[in-house]
Amino acid sequence: MSTVPTRTRATPLRDIFAYAIGDGANSLVMNTFFTFAIAYYTKAMGMSGTHAGLAMGLSLLWDAITDPLMGHVTDNTRSRFGRRHPYMLIGGVLTVMCFYAIWAVPSYFQTPELLFWYLVAVNILLRTASTVFAVPYIALGFEVCTDYNQRTTLQGVREGINMGVNLVGCALLVWSVFLRDRGGVKGETIPANYERMGLTFSVAALAFMLFMVFATRKYAYDSRNRPDVVGNSLHEILGNLKDILFDPYPRMVFLFIAVLFIGVVLLTSFQVFVYLDFMCFAPWEKSLVHGSTMVAAALGALLTAPLVRRLDKKPSVLILVLVGCLGNVGLVVLFATGWVPRDLTWHTVPVATLVFLVLHDLYHLGATAARTIATSMMADVSEISRHRTGRLRDGSYSAMLSFVLKASIAIGLVLFGLSLDWLGFDPAREQQTPQVARNLLVAGFLAATVISLLATLTIVRYPVNRAYMAEIQAALASKQEPTPSAETASAAEPGPGPPPEGS
Q1: Is residue 230 situated within a structural domain?
Q2: Is 459 within a domain?
Q3: Given a cut of 70, is residue 70 above it in pLDDT?
């Protein structure tokens, strides 16, 4: 195995795609989980929204322990197979097994008393396995791609593949094959449909994961003799976590991603119920609208690289969030007020469906693209930390990012479950009343808008830009201190206080 190369090299596109393919596994597992799990346990298994949301959110405390721990462990592993690949292989296999267990509930546990605790236990196991896979996987991306602009390209390709797989899986196959209505019975109310879906997606996710692990093995650098491997004692772990949490740069990015993704999870959870109960979409309309959101998200992710090259990262993020919020507000105004009737057609063309689709897609395009750019910011702040400390801690930053994403999912699902009951959702009804359906639309889409706008407040003072990162990388290459421009000089100084606003 070779040693870690200089971090300023260009990355071949084939390596970027080989790495990004791994997110196909994450897409099938996580997108399917937080899009359909509550629908499965409420509409098919009869659990209340509050209990379903709480069961999925209780794992948050466990994630608070395992994610930072895994980040430190993967950074400080001595192995000739590298610090990332052994964990990705083991964690990926376990993730797939736990994912299938979410949908294949043994008959013994299908009682109101046991079903809740079954979901809690399997969800904790799923999140643990996901941590073992996702933390080193995200960290590997920081190491595969080191150029400031190309990092956005890598994250854009990764998000594009994620959304492409999501389109084929969650949109096309779920609605047209697995949850298709049959004999007048709604497909989303039949438990066996979800089990077939879980098995199919588990096999596909395993294939994506194995391909990525073996296709990126050239980046499995021998870490047995690396001087920056410090060990995995509790003292080292706590000290490492403290350093990251007190660093203002990553804190801004973490908060932005956390708040933004809570809104994404809320809207993604509500939208399934809006499709079914408010818009009353036909099966082909469900596939069309749901699938279009993934196309929009993929396009947004792929557009991030040229947008960042033109505007830099922070301005791009702020613009994209605003675009998404405008789409949500327009949708609520037009449909909740009845200005666009749900049955509006023009020469048999479903105008209401098309208007809903366009506005709905704006949010997914903006939010996904903003999160993609923010993820590339994590590689930047990790590199700044390496310059300051002399230690490569991509795994630790990756762990915190993984924790932030999973914590956001948990919080979003808990809020969604509580909101279902608060808004009057009745799991015993096959079709909700018009008032409840309208409540689901307004609450879900406006809540996501407000939360997204709040997220911008956490990133607006982020000072790192392209010019400063060029100085950091030059300093790393020459082993000398950078000489920041006046615009970023004060931002380069470490300290617990908030840095000044950059350009």
Answers
A1: no
A2: yes
A3: yes
